[in-house]
Design goal:
Layout: E1 11-15, E2 18-19, E3 26-27, E4 34-35, E5 41-42, H1 45-58, E6 64-70, H2 75-83, E7 88-93, H3 101-117, E8 124-128, H4 139-147, E9 151-161, E10 164-171, E11 174-181, E12 184-188, H5 200-208, E13 212-214, H6 248-257
Parallel strand pairs: 1-6, 1-8, 6-7, 7-13, 8-12, 9-12
Antiparallel strand pairs: 2-5, 3-4, 9-10, 10-11
Helix pairs in contact: 2-5, 3-4
């Protein structure tokens, strides 16, 4: 159960356009990225939960802004977040393949500073725990260092009250609670909240929102990864029980050995 949030807590939630990993995963020829040409694009489950938490924390009294750095097509993911309750969107138009974690953190920090100068402070910045395509876990920590803010990683839930963010993290020995003063950065791990589905009215409102487009603040240094590798396929076994009615006794024995039949 989410607690009361402080009115006026501006939230920035950062998302990334990534290939849909529900299908077969292929790498680009240079093994630097996941090839999404045949599977479509989405945002990670971590970021879907971050969007849900952002809208809860902001509530009806504050702005929940969604941000992405990506190609022009990434506006699709921004519109999706807007349909789920975010109220503003910022698009840093750039080729994400040219940006490493330090570059992305610097660009997010530049947006945070620019919005603050415009009178739109983001007291809480939420990100997914890691990138679904490249596996980078660094952006949240690098962003917090860039902004000089405290950071909590792998939060299941986040609540804000009296200028303090309370993040619940599922640790190796049970749930842990961290309290950090605002402004702060929190990375979100899926499973703590259930993301909502867009409504028809939400989709209509999302189409009317003017998306702020920005150019990158600096030239990227680029990623330092050598290459990505795919894990070996999980082994599978098939046990042939027989054909037709003759297979019934073997099926009963199998179900009994699994503990689902007596």
């Amino acid at each position: 159960m989410m607690g009361d949030t402080t009115p006026g807590t501006g939230v920035l939630v950062c998302i990334k356009r990534v290939p849909d990993s529900s299908g077969e995963i292929l790498l680009t020829p240079d093994a630097q990225a996941v090839d999404g040409r045949y599977v479509g694009f989405t945002v990670s489950a971590h970021e879907s939960c971050a969007i849900e938490l952002a809208t809860r924390v902001a509530g009806a009294d504050a702005e929940a802004t969604v941000l992405t750095l990506g190609p022009s097509e990434a506006v699709e993911q921004l519109r999706s977040a807007l349909s789920l309750g975010c109220t503003a969107a910022t698009h840093v138009v750039a080729d994400p393949a040219a940006y490493g974690p330090a570059d992305v953190a610097r660009e997010i920090a530049a947006v945070v500073r620019a919005h603050e100068a415009e009178g739109r402070p983001h007291d809480l910045v939420l990100l997914g725990n890691d990138a679904a395509d490249s596996g980078d876990f660094q952006v949240g920590i690098r962003l917090a260092h860039e902004l000089g803010r405290p950071v909590v990683n792998g939060a299941a839930t986040v609540e804000v009250a009296d200028g303090v963010a309370t993040a619940a993290v599922d640790g190796p020995h049970g749930r842990e609670t961290y309290r950090v003063p605002l402004p702060a950065v929190v990375t979100v791990l899926e499973g703590g909240v259930a993301p909502r589905y867009p409504t028809l009215s939400g989709r209509v409102k999302a189409k009317k929102v003017v998306v702020e487009e920005r150019t990158p603040a600096a030239e990227p240094r680029g990623p330092s990864r050598v290459r990505l590798t795919l894990p070996p396929p999980a082994p599978s076994q098939v046990q042939l029980l027989g054909e037709g009615p003759e297979a019934a006794p073997a099926l009963v024995d199998l179900l009994q050995s699994m503990g689902v039949a007596r």
